TrEMBL record:
Record SUPFAM superfamilies: MFS general substrate transporter
Domain of life the protein comes from: Eukaryota
Lineage: Eukaryota, Fungi, Dikarya, Ascomycota, Pezizomycotina
Keyword Cell membrane assigned: no
Keywords associated with the record: Membrane, Transmembrane, Transmembrane helix, Transport
Recorded topology in the membrane: Multi-pass membrane protein
Record carries keyword Transport: yes
Localization per record: Membrane
Transmembrane portions of the chain: 12-31, 37-57
Name by which UniProt lists this protein: Major facilitator superfamily domain-containing protein
Family annotation (InterPro entries): MFS_trans_sf
Length: 121
């Protein structure tokens, strides 16, 4: 995975993986049976497996860590819009991961030599 990140650049690679993982997580909140969630979990694992080496490679921190109080709050959204609380957990975390991934396309610097100059520093 690091060779792919090196080839296309960590900014695009990590942004793509994060957005893709977020979309899969949203899908996990909308499944109808255990077979669908199992298939999506396998796909999510593939994206997560690519994110860690790229994050270590580019020295970036994983910004999608879970916060216990947020998960608890999402589970209290039982039957809102006809979805169980556990579904809202996947939907909201997935949408958040998509947003963070999209910011990564802009904010992550591919390589130190490609860094953008900062004003006033």
């Amino acid at each position: 995975m690091t060779s792919i990140a090196r080839e296309i650049g960590p900014r695009i690679f990590m942004g793509f993986i994060t957005v893709s993982a977020g979309l899969v997580m949203v899908g996990m909140g909308l499944v109808n049976n255990w077979k669908e969630i199992a298939a999506l979990r396998v796909i999510l694992s593939l994206f997560e497996a690519g994110l860690f080496p790229a994050a270590v490679f580019s020295s970036a921190a994983d910004m999608s860590s879970k916060v216990d109080w947020m998960v608890y709050g999402l589970e209290q959204m039982e039957q809102l819009q006809g979805h169980n609380g556990w579904r809202w957990n996947f939907i909201i975390e997935g949408v958040s991961a998509v947003a963070v991934g999209q910011m990564g396309f802009v904010l992550i610097v591919d390589f130190p030599e490609d860094g953008r100059p900062h004003d006033g520093s």
